[in-house]
Amino acid sequence: MTELEVALSDREFDKIRERIYKIAGISLGDAKRTLVVSRLSKLIRAKELKSFDAYVDFLDKRATAADKQTFVNALTTNLTRFYREDHHFDHLVEYVRGLISGPHQKSANGKPRLRIWSAGCSTGQEPYTIAMCLMQHFPQLRNWDFRILATDVDTDVVATASAGIYPQSDLEGLTEAQAKMFEIVGDGTIRVPAALRKLMTFKPLNLMGDWPLRGPFDAIFCRNVTIYFDKPTQTRIFGRFAELLDEGGFLYIGHSENMRAESLGFKLQGKTIYQRQPDASGRAVA
Ligand SMILES: C[S@@+](CC[C@H](N)C(=O)[O-])C[C@H]1O[C@@H](n2cnc3c(N)ncnc32)[C@H](O)[C@@H]1O
User: Fold this and answer.
1) Is the CB of 89 within 6 Å of ligand 1?
2) Domain-wise residue ranges, the chain
3) Closest ligand 1 atom to the C-alpha of 207?
4) Residue 258: which residues within 8 A CB-CB, separation 6 or more?
5) Does the domain spanning 87-276 belong to CATH 3.40.50.150?
6) 166-185 pLDDT, tens digit each
7) CA gap 253, 209 in Å, rounded
């Protein structure tokens, strides 16, 4: 422990765990103890508090909504990158190719409609990759009512995502064609072009709470998010995704995640790619 770190007893660790589980569904295992100390010590010191107990008491009794949000933001893990698990984007392109060539739903304005949700979007690399892949392959989507909703419980990452500005080092590992989609700002940063940013709606949204969203979605990406949830929470969330997906729509989850597809109204169609079945009730058969 460094001088700046605040000591954390087992009892205090349990209080922190209970709190973040209750708010965001995040289950912190014993291995996350160091992470809790390093991330929350800064907040405790900034508030001039002496201990984790005092901090929990502060959160219970005196904290503003912003203080409570800072607590949540401090305990999320936001690792992401452009084109992460790229087989999902290859699949999405082929799926959308089929949607474009077949009959599709129309919006009120008469334009063909395409809706994608990135749930747990972190700093935005995932939803922007969706936009880049689809616009690169299907420029005609400019004439569609095509929107990408990108949400996260962490308000800091949502703010970063909506700015669409990243360090130039984020281009490492991308192909030339992929890298070309960005604007070079010139100060060591890159920017997602306005034409792609305008497809996006970024919003803070806690998957544990209400989802004031209008579906149906053609595809939902929820990758590397439910790994932090316990099984019953995962099952509940996947069931709610089934309710919001169009029949035949796809749910993409992270490489280390899985679900009991059939009981939730999905069919496994590829590595961590699930298709919503026509009769999906979205209700988990526990
Ligand atoms: C590891 S990142 C994954 C980012 C992206 N989906 C990817 O695969 O690259 C996990 C994200 O899930 C978000 N998250 C955790 N719990 C959440 C919740 N209850 N509601 C919404 N987002 C949550 C975190 O804030 C974090 O940004």
Assistant:
1) no
2) 10-75, 87-276
3) 20
4) 272
5) yes
6) 999 999 999 999 999 999 99
7) 20
